[in-house]
User: Fold this.
Amino acid sequence: MTTADIVILGGSAAGITAAITARRHHPDKRIGLVRKEKQVMIPCGIPYIYGTLGSPQKNLIPDSILETNRIDLHIAEVTKIDRKERRLGTSEGDVKYERLILATGSLPTKPPIPGVDLDGVFAILKDVEHLRMLQQRLQKASDVVIIGGGFIGIEFADEINKIGGKDVTVLELAPNCLSLSYDPDFCTEMENLLTSRGITVRTSATVERIAGDGRVSAVALADGSSVPADMVILGIGARANVELARQADLRLGPTGGIAVDRTMQTSDPAIFACGDCAEKISFFGGRPSPLKLASIAQLEARIAGANVFGLRRESDGTLGIWSTAVGELAMGTAGLTESMAKDRGYQVVCGTVETPNRHPGAMPGAAPVKVKLVFELHSQVLIGGQVRGNTSVGEMINTIAACVQKRMTAEDIAMFQMGTHPALTASPIVYPLVNAAELALSQARQ
Amino acid sequence: MTTADIVILGGSAAGITAAITARRHHPDKRIGLVRKEKQVMIPCGIPYIYGTLGSPQKNLIPDSILETNRIDLHIAEVTKIDRKERRLGTSEGDVKYERLILATGSLPTKPPIPGVDLDGVFAILKDVEHLRMLQQRLQKASDVVIIGGGFIGIEFADEINKIGGKDVTVLELAPNCLSLSYDPDFCTEMENLLTSRGITVRTSATVERIAGDGRVSAVALADGSSVPADMVILGIGARANVELARQADLRLGPTGGIAVDRTMQTSDPAIFACGDCAEKISFFGGRPSPLKLASIAQLEARIAGANVFGLRRESDGTLGIWSTAVGELAMGTAGLTESMAKDRGYQVVCGTVETPNRHPGAMPGAAPVKVKLVFELHSQVLIGGQVRGNTSVGEMINTIAACVQKRMTAEDIAMFQMGTHPALTASPIVYPLVNAAELALSQARQ
Assistant:
């Protein structure tokens, strides 16, 4: 039997971060990490296996990060959490813990569509073998349909399209792809880009069934049309993987995740949970939130890892920050969009600017960058932002995220000193974050 | 005679921004801008004229931004400020004002070195004709010496080196180039890069005199050595252009700028000043600050433009945020370096991390990114940061800048939700801002 002071169950991004954080906060404790996978996929890198990287082996999280942090790795399938004995039953023997951190992640949602079990229909599992099979199957496919136009769907579509020789179609139920994270003008730009790259994008498309005789042959839509398919990829979301927690009678939350308080403590004070498996509340209003993102998992893991032997940190709730890239176009989002904010009952004032991301515009690499900031009208507190531009968008969205998290106002942002450089950013005169805040202030005064 | 409610004197970045801000805050006022230049240079773009852009004409700020904002442009040389009559005397007749904003900028410092007036020695004036002359002279030069290894010096060195066929030498008085803005390890990296690109970098180099007979032929150093030169460029800083303010008996400050309070009001309540011409205090401790940067000028212009008819905004002082780029290497800095902080009497704790800026590292465009955060030890408030990496550094430094400005702590930053993406940023597990904060916290606990 193995024993450790802190045991982390799950070896993906949340589990690894919880382990590293526990090591930093508890330098003298024995820390173990149990996972079933021999090799761990970088979750966000999975779409890029198919076009850019070329193989699942190029998308691994190296175990060296565990060794460096003196985390004992146990590769084993956990079959049971014995809370009374503080012991995990595993395929390789028992593991005793003083404190347990659950980071069991999520599983892809399988929609209740007829035909979803046909040969050739793939969900996205974070598993090397499964992803390799998907790759082999792709080599022979000529009509690929992706159900779901969220970020996983569009990233898969573009990467598969890069392989060449295939008709790739994205089917999205909502009127726009990415509509849970971007306002319509941003979504439309991404749809147009995908279309210009040869991908068929169908929005407001309700899938009625997946057709085929043993093997998938088409996807039938509610409007009576049908899209030929010799392969279907499901990109419609994920649900918390809570099977072991449920068996151990840990309390579950309203969206189906493991119930935790703001310290990431579960209903058992010796057990914490973080990442996709944990129930979440929104930063805005505090209601249950179904979001599952790396940015959230990371925060929760840093809270759980710090708190195991005395509470040190609390979560303010999930913001929803992420970015995506297709070709030269990158888009980032943080917090609420204008549409989402209005739907939730906020009155908002927005500032939107578009400007070259270099100055002068004749500098190499110049491309337009667009920033939209969403403020609550009366307090003028920033509640969301969206950016569209080139690779630097991946970092711009984090400036916005920091402002949302610290509840900065339009005036705070208008008063920023911001660094600029001809080869790296927009002109100081029109620096887009500051300028968008100034525009929102002008509008609020009117 | 021309009359306006608000007159801005100076048409570069600070003047334009003050005018736009005044328009936003005072939609119904008549606003005029007086400048002597027919065409306005983008100040930070000047080095890039010589290698990347190819001509001063490609580095202009378009006047359309004034038209869009209903600013009346007067091209005239101002000879006098008549404060009693609230009137500017100009080469094209008088301009009457209700409120005046001075944005007269700075002039290059001419060092008291013998030979500084020889033919072939150039200061950097923000003037199209002067910069064109400098370009013509460069075409015939083969030995170019740049005195001063600050950002203007190294940017000029690299751009001139791109022309080809020249020996380019940078002479820096201090032990490192960029040492006023970066800690030594960052400086050394930039020096090594410049050297690898064929530029000679000499640090701890005291210039004794510029030699030549009418025309420059060499630069003589205090150690007895001599560097051949048929052209010398002075990149050693700038002083506030306060001649008109001095003649008008406006109070000047301890570093020679126009004295202003935190609202940018001068000793005359009808006159405001902003940008390089205005005296500044540091964000850290509030002492007089000699910094002159676009990031500071912009903030001051947004304060002055808002405040002319009733005080709306106050400055917290100058932070010092800027970035630079040479080839694929970009560096950004905000606030105090570790060395500067210690020199000023702070006890500090730092966190430094280096990680690939893509995940997995096999993603295209992957390069190492290094982040150093400097915290005050006892409060754990962020007082500075430095980043080295690729173009995204230009935006990363602004996340750090926002954190410094809002006096965030290491714990605030360790608790950030930050967006990440394989093609755009580092891995969430090691996202460098958060990770550097966590490391600083670990060290502070020890």
Remarks:
- The CA atoms of residues 59 and 151 of chain A lie 18 Å apart.
